[in-house]
Specification:
Layout: H1 3-6, E1 10-12, E2 15-23, E3 27-35, E4 41-49, H2 51-54, H3 57-70, E5 81-87, E6 90-96, E7 100-102, H4 103-113, E8 117-118, H5 119-138, E9 159-162, E10 167-169, H6 174-178, H7 186-189, H8 198-201, H9 208-224, H10 240-245, H11 259-269, H12 281-294, H13 301-332, E11 393-394, H14 401-426
Parallel strand pairs: 8-11
Antiparallel strand pairs: 1-2, 2-3, 3-4, 4-6, 5-6, 7-9, 9-10
The structure holds adenosine-5'-triphosphate and magnesium ion (MG).
């Protein structure tokens, strides 16, 4: 990695990278601008695959195959892939920028601020994950042939939550490439066991039920307020053996409505034997939606967004300002005047673009097995896990009715005034 690679803003094909927002064992994530034909621009996320992996032909082949399939997914609960290509010798994916937190960050922020996440929002998050999975698993090509998409890495860092309260799953299928070769560095694969199905841990061939299991782990953790698999001291996360054994403790009682039914859904998602799990994400979503509706736990993105703003408004504004500032630096700089190395590598083959082809928080500081790459809220460490029986997610509170009623009275009063005014204005005047 050269110094020029680190310098921002810089051009990268048809993008201008202006802020680094994450780095993992596999990729660097940048916030970028992409210019549109008539001079407008749009913010996107560019996921630049690390050189070692970009140079690995087996990895590249699988990565491109999977990303081409994922680019076909168009759904409100999935972060849309915009472009896929190779630039400066690096594979990259450009995708929709979801301005907000990932679920791991949100849980850390809740933990730090001691703000419990209302259970209806926890259920909204899991429902949206299942909705995204259901759509992707069922996706067919133009000829009606099933694409056979499996996410393979459903985990909190791949669940993006926008400040508007939308929930979007990202990184479909990319994990498949990770298991592709001996050259794939250990740190890229590390820490994946925490959300792995037993069949994945056993190296069996996978279908959508592996993702259903991972969604079950997230539901279990949100309801329990702790990680499902506790990692051994000094380890970077739960072990493959833990994922293979898939021992799921009973969920603690938290006082949620019809709790046995909710626990039943979580435990069915987490059946070790996939034949005993929900047959697919669709069935699981139906049961969860029925539970939510029958227990008046329906939540909307609008309400979720308001709740995020209420509790994390300062962080949200800080992040927005940071992004704005970084983006404005792009405007202030004459990118064409940049040193030779940072000039666009204008590949006539359009950057070899492939896209067209194809209760109370005490705990979960570590909803990741990896060390945070950038930790905006500097969460406390999860090790050793405090044996808390407090719910991370708190039971829902009834919505305040008085506010709604007040609006009704005001509206009625305004209507009455308008009616009286209209009456006097249209009344025939006194006959002379
Ligand atoms: N489309 C996006 N919009 C906004 N933020 C994103 C987007 N994609 C990724 N991020 C942020 O960048 C972080 C790092 O992403 P990356 O996929 O490299 O690592 P990861 O999700 O922790 O690991 P992995 O995907 O390999 O399991 C994410 O956790 C998320 O916070
Ligand atoms: Mg990711």
């Amino acid at each position: 990695m050269t110094a020029a690679d680190e310098q921002l803003p810089r051009r990268f094909g048809r993008f201008v990278l202006f802020d680094k927002i994450g780095e993992g064992g596999m990729a660097r994530i940048y916030l970028a601008k992409s210019s549109t034909g008539l001079g407008g621009d749009r913010r996107v996320v560019v996921k630049q695959i690390l050189p070692l992996l970009s140079d690995n032909s087996e990895f590249s082949r699988l990565f491109i195959d999977e990303a081409k399939l994922s680019a076909k997914l168009t759904h409100g609960s999935i972060a849309q892939i915009i472009d896929l290509g190779r630039e400066e010798g690096r594979l990259y994916i450009a995708m929709e920028y979801v301005e907000g937190f990932d679920l791991r960050e949100l849980l850390r922020a809740c933990s730090k601020k001691q703000v419990p996440l209302p259970v209806e929002f926890a259920l909204l998050i899991v429902s949206e994950i299942l909705r995204a999975l259901d759509y992707a698993h069922r996706k067919r090509d133009e000829n009606g042939k099933k694409l056979g998409i499996v996410h393979r890495d459903v985990s909190p860092s791949n669940v993006l939550i926008s400040f508007e309260g939308e929930v979007k799953l990202c990184d479909f299928g990319i994990a498949r490439a990770m298991g592709s070769g001996e050259d794939v560095p250990e740190e890229a694969i590390q820490g994946k066991a925490g959300y792995m199905s037993p069949e994945a841990a056993n190296g069996e061939s996978l279908d959508g039920r592996a993702d259903v299991f991972a969604a079950g782990i997230m539901l279990w953790e949100l309801l329990a307020g702790r990680r499902l698999y506790r990692s051994a001291k000094g380890s970077s996360g739960p072990s493959l053996e833990q994922a293979q054994q898939a021992v799921v403790p009973e969920l603690p009682a938290r006082g949620y409505p019809d709790e046995a039914r909710l626990h039943g859904i979580a435990m069915k998602l987490l059946s070790k034997d996939r034949e005993k799990r929900y047959a697919d994400a669709h069935d699981a979503l139906r049961e969860l939606e029925d539970y939510v509706a029958e227990n008046s736990l329906v939540a909307s993105p609008l309400r979720f967004g308001e709740w995020l703003m209420e509790h994390f408004g300062a962080e949200i504004l800080e992040r927005r300002q940071h992004n704005e500032q970084a983006a404005n630096e792009v405007l202030d700089q004459d990118l064409d005047g940049m040193p030779e190395k940072q000039q666009p590598v204008v590949a006539p083959q359009a950057a070899a673009s492939l896209s067209a082809a194809g209760s109370e928080v005490q705990i979960p500081a570590a909803f990741s097995d990896r060390q945070p790459k950038s930790d905006p809220v500097s969460a406390p460490s999860f090790e050793p896990p405090p044996p808390s029986l407090q719910a991370f997610v708190r039971p829902s509170e009834p919505a305040p009715e008085s506010a709604g009623k007040a609006w009704l009275w005001i509206a009625l009063a305004v209507l009455a005034i308008v009616a009286v005014a209209v009456y006097f204005m249209t009344r025939p005047g006194p006959t002379p």
